[in-house]
Amino acid sequence: MSTKTIARGLEGVLFTESAMCFIDGQAGRLYYGGYKIQDLAEYSTFEEVSFLLLHGHLPSRQELQAFSQKLTSLRALPPALLESMRRYPKNAHPMSALRTAVSELGMLDADEDNVSPEALYEKSLSLIAKFATIVAANKRLREGLDPIAPRADLSHAANFLYMSNGKEPTAEETKLMDVALILQAEHGFNASTFTAIAAYSTHTDIYSAITAGVSSLKGPRHGGANEAVMKMIGEIGSVENVGPWLENLVANKGRVMGMGHRVYKAYDPRAGVLEKYASIVAEKQGHSKEYAILKEVERRAGAIYNPKGIYPNVDFYSGVVYKDLGYDLEYFTPIFAVARISGWTGHILEYTRLDDRLLRPDAAYTGQLDLPYVPLEQR
Ligand code: ACO
């Protein structure tokens, strides 16, 4: 019998080093590459943050210009992928469509298996650029419309909105999308990042590793929680019903979606930033009912759960913001993926530099040994 201790859920296990992200879960602090998330959300752009995650420092003006131009040049999808996407079932979840499209991108890359640092970097930029195009194209196709080709004169956030909704976004809408993308671009060794690195550690191609990351993000305990929050709001229906709904949830040992986090035992700083924007949106656009329900859930559920270290996480308010930007709830997790692709690829690149070792944890064996093999006809 093994004497090693089991870290259930791999909690607290350090398997490598990283300079990309620092999370102080007790104090509710988050940094990318040493910069406070609040400062990045306020002053930066998704392109700049992606550069920071891939290179480890903020870009100079020239570096940012070259990086942004490169991303812009990689936005268009291969025609064969677009053709294939037209045949995806209309009722397939957009996360399933994204997972399939990333996998297809790999098949369409003649140099798919190249895992040299240069090739991984190039493919990372291509994936960061193309995730937005894939999600927007899928949205259009599901609405029975033709995909819209990317525009080179728009920023990543503005172009994503333009390809998704067919109209050029306002400066406010672009800022809102930029903030949402920045807040979700990176978060250490969460399940999807770990899944992507574990897959990459076999030296499979980066498309396979990222496909695995997308698959992991799809789950309701991870990226799928933002969708679950909007369903929860629908279920509650009114501010008056929050009390009875919560009583029932507590009695049945249910979970408030968008609350609780493996690392944060305080208010998730990303939720704080999004709450500010959600309140502006609620005021301006008339999504005040959803926002009011969430505020009441936060107040009432907070009284029960905050003492246990369960607070709103990034998903709690993100749905209200995404809805305002023209996305149905099924697109909330894909938008998360459009952001997180920078974190996933950044971590894969960092891991290649630091360790590049096959990941292979173990379990304490609890089965039997030396059982006599009984032939099938005698069992
Ligand atoms: N509502 C009510 N109770 C909760 C919640 C919640 N949202 N989250 C945790 N708890 C309770 C659990 O019931 C459990 O109670 P018990 O000890 O009495 O059984 C205790 O807190 C610990 O729960 P675990 O699941 O063991 O804690 P873990 O660290 O694994 O939880 C998780 C993290 C999965 C995110 C959890 O908080 C949860 O399910 N939240 C709701 C889903 C959600 O919002 N996910 C998004 C996470 S953020 C992201 O991925 C971007």
TrEMBL record:
Q: Which UniProt keywords apply?
A: Acyltransferase, Transferase, Tricarboxylic acid cycle
Q: In which pathway does it act?
A: Carbohydrate metabolism; tricarboxylic acid cycle
Q: Which GO terms describe its cellular component?
A: cytosol
Entry-linked CDD domains: citrate_synt_like_1
Q: Which residues form the active site?
A: 261, 315
- What's its catalytic activity? oxaloacetate + acetyl-CoA + H2O = citrate + CoA + H(+)
Pfam families from the entry? Answer: Citrate_synt (PF00285)
* Gene Ontology terms describing biological process: carbohydrate metabolic process; tricarboxylic acid cycle
Q: Which InterPro entries match?
A: 2-MeCitrate/Citrate_synth_II, Citrate_synth-like_lrg_a-sub, Citrate_synth-like_sm_a-sub, Citrate_synthase, Citrate_synthase_bac-typ, Citrate_synthase_sf
The GO molecular function terms of this record are: citrate synthase activity
Query: What family, per the record?
Result: Belongs to the citrate synthase family.
Name this protein carries in UniProt? Citrate synthase
* Lineage of source species: Bacteria, Thermotogati, Deinococcota, Deinococci, Thermales
User: Could you tell me the gene encoding this protein?
Assistant: gltA_2
